Amino acid sequence: MRAYQRARPAAASSAISLCADIFPVSAAGVEALRRQQQPPLGRRQGPGGPLPSEIQRVQQLSVADLKSLVQSKGWHKAAGGDIGLAGAGRTREAILSDIVRKLVLEEQVKSSPATPSASSFRSSRWGRPAWGSESSTSSPSSGAAQMLQWLTDSTDLPCSKSTRWGSWTIPLRPVFRYKPIEISGEPCISVVASHEAIPPPDLHLGALPACAKDAERNVELIKGLQVMMLAGTGRPPSGGSIVGLKGRLGAAGLREWLMGVCTSEDTKRLISQASDDEVLWEVQPNRGGGSLTFLGSRLQPKLSASNTEQLSRLSVSQDPSWLMRACVLPPGERQSLVDGELGRLQRVSTEILGTLFPSGWERASSSQAESLGRSFSVFPQPSAVVGGGVRVKSVGKALWGAMTRTGLYQYEPTMGRQLAAFGVVLSRNPSPAEMRQAERTFSELSDILGELGLEVSAPGVASAGSVVEALDLAKKVGAQVVVFFATADAQGLYHTAKRECMLRKAPKLHHLASQWIDLQREKHDFYALASIGLGICGKLGHTPYVLDSDAGQKNQLLVGMDVCHYPDPKAAGQMMHVVAGHLQGSDGGVESSWLYAGHIDGESIPPVVYRTLLTSEACSGRQVTIHRDGRFTDIEKKFLAEHAKEVGVEGGGFTLVEVVKHAAGSPRLYSGRDNAPPGSFLRLSSSEGLLVAGDSRCAGTRNPLLLRVVEQPGGPNVEQAAKDIYRMSLVTYSNLWTKPRLPATTRAADAAAYFHASTGTHAMLRSGESSEALRFLGRQQYWL
DNA sequence: GTTATCACCTCACATCGGGT
DNA sequence: ACCCGATGTGAGGTGATAAC
């Protein structure tokens, strides 16, 4: 009791403390560095010599060499420069630091936005959609970010960890990327850390028994293996893939032939030294050209995702995902890595770091003063509402328990609680064991649906040799949902089954609902079955739960839009576009979903699509927010501004929100040393922000979404937009136990577009000669 | 059953520089 | 002004895993 009383105020008062891998820089410091710019060099240095290599060279020089370099460049005090060569504190380290600073500044001048020759900013992925401020073409701290990037890239970073693979220890080297970013106009630097695997020198084909001793036996397994070719002196390794086995070096004439072919002296020496049983491989270079012959010991297997599986088949390691897992960075580790690198930079170039961060570098965090600290917030998690208006947590056992006690929020009125289900094993000749397994799963699933308040009527599980046969049986019994049990010989029928169900009507439904269950997978436990059951409810058009209303957002329409392009099955070589639109209320309840298939000029969603979806009936007197997967084009913005007036949208305009899934390396958000909780938000400007959504418990650091609100009449409100998106991320009928990262709006649009493309139904919806089609697809969530 | 995490691969596309 | 290859970048797909 005492402990409870003590603990509670503490928990309530200490609102979660958030921070991000974003570091405010001193505006004065950035400006000072800019002013120090020297006049551009008379001659332009070759583009092939990026600064890092220059710094790398300089770092190896002796004190004497460093001093003479300073003198030759005219940087020493005697020549009017600002680098002292002697006196107190003028250690090698100090002089080196000054030289590095000079080199960095020189390079910055060459590619600064003011210099016409600069191209790196325009082509940079950060050049155009500048973070934090869309209006400015280049944020004030972009030069600072580049400077830090050069400093980091100029050193071979020590490997921070390693992973075991077979008998090798593979070092993992940290990689850092710096970007300019603004928080409420304050210049900052964001840092994103990742890892890359460095193949050790002794890891080569000659050292893999399967590719050396047993090479002849494994040729077929080894063909296609991606390798790096260690060419002669100076040349960087280039990539290629194994196309065949040439033979052993000792075979008649091979050594002499290879000696004659090779030009590099180094290579010739290696060949003459190699033993007779060294294997020679034919390699097809990725660059093109004819295949080349290499010594096994001069070929390193690529440590890449696609290659690890093939390597694992060579029985070096049984686990092909070792690399991926080793590279995952838990939040605490990621923070330490970033801290360590900034600390290292401070030692390498005290002056630059000191100018950018006069009072030491510190993460932007919610505990900071003024606008910086207030830019962080955590949205409260809304409750879910189930049958009888009961409110519960929107995820997991609580939600399940509430739905089983008081029923779903709404059973589709036309259907009520009755459900005709049909189970069928897809196999010409199912084994008794397979039938038993299917029957048991089907009955468990029926029980689950019963718990959700549905009165399931179902004949026993049948079997059918084809999808059509199965659906004819389903039709006879008036089934509204078909559960397919797939045996080994039905694996390829998934898309056919989905397509046929989509195209068939069912009693009281737009289309037949379907569920695919793979009998080859291990038995479905309660968690899986509960998710399947919930999914079936969504596919039937029921509304299992909605969200508790958000004060102030009473009458809102949320729209998700997604555009995909796919090859047109009717016109070879042409692309067709699939636009999916998804309308729901602010409580998450589905209102309707639409699909457009046809050709599109550019990336713009055709006006006819918006005109059909966003009618006056749907929009009049409501606030309407459109979530777009990707960017709105200018044409769309212009059209929507006009259209909003026509349909009488509240507030005079649509709220347009761009949801960017993979904003190249979004800086991560934390709560202390842990992942930031879902609902965490960092406001970057009036129109941009980073949002953490989803509650997956992966080991890694969560990747926030980048949200951008397009300018609008009432002024953009990125906070409200982020709140809506967080709320919508809590609405899923496909899984009871975890929440996705994306809002239901764009997720539904995305999934629907993918569904049609993968089943081929996007082309079939076009009737007759028409090259395009716009269809209303009802409220059933067939894409689940 | 679904979900996100990591790096890399491939493909498509834009842009740049060096020519003519 | 135009072409062409080189270069760089983005999007989307890949696979194992653990959690509920």
UniProtKB/TrEMBL annotation:
Organism from which the protein derives: Polarella glacialis (Dinoflagellate)
Query: Which InterPro entries does its entry note?
Result: Piwi (IPR003165), RNaseH-like_sf (IPR012337), RNaseH_sf (IPR036397)
Q: What is this protein called?
A: Piwi domain-containing protein
| Disordered: region residues | 113-145
Coiled coil (UniProt feature)? none
MF annotations from Gene Ontology: nucleic acid binding
Low complexity bias spans: 133-142
For bias type Polar residues, the affected ranges are 113-123
Residues in domain Piwi? 481-761
